[in-house]
Amino acid sequence: MDQHVHEALVTQIFELFDTGEEAVSYLSSHELAENRGLLADLEALCSAVASAVEQLAPRIRLENKLKEIGLNAPLTVARISKLLDEGRTDLAQTQCACSLTPLFLFWRRYAEFFLLHAASDESLGDWYARERERIRQIRETPKRDEPEEHRFDFSIVVQFYGNRKMTKACLDAIETCTRGHSYELITFDNGSDPEATAWCESLPHVKKIYYPHNMGSSAAGNLIFTMAPCYMEGKYLLYVSNDVIVTPRYDEILWQCMESDSRIAMAVPVCNSASNLQAIPVPYAKDDLTGMFSFAESYNHCDPRKWEDRSRLFSILACMRPDMLKQASFAIDPFFCYDMFADDDFSCVLRRMGYRQVLCRDVFVHHYGSATIGEGQFQVMDLGRAQFRQKHGVDAWASLGMDLCAALNSFSLSISGPVRILALNPLFGESVLALVNRLRASGCGELTVDALTEDGRYLEDMEGLFRRSGPLKEEAQVLEGTYDIAIVGCNLGRCADLRGVLHTAASRLKPDGLLITQHENFFNLSNLNLALQGRLPEDGVFLHDPEENLGLHIITGKALDRALREEGLALEKSVSLTNDAWRPAAGKLVSLLGIQQKGEAENTLLSLGKFNVWRKTS
Hints:
Elements: H1 3-28, H2 36-56, H3 66-85, H4 89-117, H5 121-139, E1 152-160, H6 164-177, E2 183-190, H7 194-201, E3 207-211, H8 217-231, E4 234-241, E5 244-245, H9 250-260, E6 264-271, H10 289-299, E7 307-310, E8 317-320, H11 322-328, H12 342-352, E9 356-367, H13 375-392, H14 402-408, E10 419-424, H15 430-441, E11 447-453, H16 459-465, E12 468-471, H17 475-478, E13 483-488, H18 498-508, E14 509-520, H19 525-532, E15 544-545, E16 550-551, H20 557-566, E17 569-578, H21 583-593, H22 598-606, E18 607-616
Helix pairs in contact: 1-2, 1-4, 2-3, 3-4, 4-8, 8-11, 12-16, 14-15, 21-22
């Protein structure tokens, strides 16, 4: 297909989309039974669009789900016509509102992205530049809910793909445990087998979204998040994966959290099985639901002190604000069509818009999760990680600072009254928010955070999360006064001007103020093994990151202690993270090398790094 034919076909596709959108809008506000002819025309139009898009498939350079969405569109129209033939007019009207209209509008947006915005690196870059500008405008707009009457407190959307037994357990738990608030149940059947589909169709709730061809959980999630405000009648969207079992009072606690602040985009409970520090230890066996409900009954008690701000959350179950979804709909990115890192990208959009994401540690739900991860899923994970780096210019994992988040649980921070925090190189801000959460739980009053960075790629995240933020070189223009706590959010080895970062922290601390840092032990067993094999870790933590072209400093405890003493700081607390699983190999290496001080050498090999608290003494 030559370029001229390609461009002509793209033009034709969007002319058909224009016509179809008019038809969908008309059908949504008129009696379907009186417009059977228009339905037939719309079915033919959907088939024509799907066929034209399929012709362009070899020219679309990014992975996508256009084919699956295109297969669903004419079948959804045909299903509505069949319901009319059966005299089920009300159900046909519901399907038009909940299944057809959202799918068609989403299909158009999806096609625009892959056929127009992502047609080249240049056009994709222009699209993301416009997206960043819209995000900035939303960030600068005050967050407040528009006064509106709602028929229900929650619209609960359950997405499933087969697995009737698990889905039934999920729905049964929702019916049993959702007692504190009114709700409408909306099921989203993402191409299930006929048995599971027939079972769902037999249930008494009205809004049953059904698409015969599976679109993948990521595309389906995007469809729900972008289009749910079109058909939901609840104040909040409660998105539930079918491998989740809700528990007593879950609805009440999530409701209280969302009601507490209109800046909260979504609230998520803890569970038994999840990454991202969203899981807690539980005393029951995985399939012991009786024991699970007993545990949840004693665990689920509303306590706002346990509501933690996070920079990233995974939404196996998430309570969301529809106004936020309307604002974010343009930025829910089709680029991430294989699930992995779609959550990271969505969280990135929310924090840059200035919204809060809250993990409610006072409410627990059960999550079956995945027992194994196959090789194919690791490949998808690598693809998603690379896509995130391509879009945002930074690595999603290396930008979190999760090790410091875990280490903060080992620190006892007893500070009262208003606290001013200075964050230096906070990356995505996760470790800084972990500090804020820790202080808030201990009873601190007003907490404010200002931030500086050496890396301008993180400025948009900082502007969405913190009171003041800017480049480190503009310290005087950004900061005012002194601070109770300073925290370096990245590994010290990643600082481009380490002494400059430490000097800024020390000079801005109040007398007796605290500095929190982390640094890696570059001589641990894993790094030495990689060095001996002549290769570097993928995330570039040994000596140099080839992807980011960033040199990393080797930092010893003695040198760091000396540098900070010169700045008037003294070491107060230190936590060393070790990997005891390496002990046999470390002991063997020490013996082979004939090292006399075996204990000290082994400890060096086992240490991953240190997390320190320093106090300003002068």
